[in-house]
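Contributing new complexes? Match this layout with flavin mononucleotide.
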Amino acid sequence: MKRLTYISQATPELSMSVVQHIGEISARNNQQCGITGVLLFLDGVFFQILEGETQQIEQLYEKILSDERHTNIICLKTEYPVTERMFPDWAMKMIDFNQYDDIVIRPVKSLLHTLSESHQIIEKYTQPAIAKIITQGINPLTVQPRLVEKVIMFSDIVAFSTFTEILPVKEVVELVNHYCTTCTRIISAQGGEVIKFIGDCVMASFDATQTDAALHAAIEILQQFKQMRQHAPPNHPLSLLYRTDLTSSNSVKK
Ligand SMILES: Cc1cc2nc3c(=O)[nH]c(=O)nc-3n(C[C@H](O)[C@H](O)[C@H](O)COP(=O)(O)O)c2cc1C
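Output block (do not edit by hand):
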């Protein structure tokens, strides 16, 4: 047997009657395929534990993942093999936490909110490959290292140290944010993955077979920033960069 725990956010317009309906349908369907569990609902957050035969759980989770009544679905944990059910008597016990406000329930409410928020933060700031492992409910610390062949790409801002000396701190931060966001968008669109940011440096990887994609990403990044330099105000240090083509020198005229 398998046990799967996930958290998700109801779509904003989801009414309480729809939530109740999900609970009823779930209890009916689950009874037919031997699935048990619990579904908690609180301030737009779903928290569900499903347990049953592996194939049944995987089929149901596929359906749940494509259900448009909720988003940001994050698998918190998968347990396999499981020999004993935690909720043997509940085909799907739906608990609407909004109805309760006693002192014992409050920490649980707080916990659910924190879980939902922290996983959104993890998704935003963690390397996609690691985030994917986490969202599958696997603890990344238990994943064994393996040897893989990759194309590694490094990209950073020419004369960044000079910019940090000339520009006010606020503008340096804006420049780095804009640079990292643009690189990430282009690298992801080409199928690559940003591994980390090191100051003004972006380190990314592509599959070993994706050399062309990596080169396309690099060229597009250069083109984007060439345009940015060309459109910078006349006295801005960016416009003083005399790198006018993709291959020229990397110094700044002061
Ligand atoms: C938060 C949430 C939890 C759900 N849990 C279950 C569940 O435990 N069992 C179930 O059959 N459907 C559940 N559903 C509904 C399924 O996504 C799907 O709509 C339902 O199984 C009907 O599918 P069918 O039309 O293929 O029968 C859930 C939906 C949501 C949004």
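Reviewers usually confirm one structural detail per submission. For this one: The pocket of flavin mononucleotide is lined by residues 8, 22, 25-26, 29-30, 39, 46, 48, 50, 60, 63-64, 67, 69-70, 92 (CB under 6 Å).
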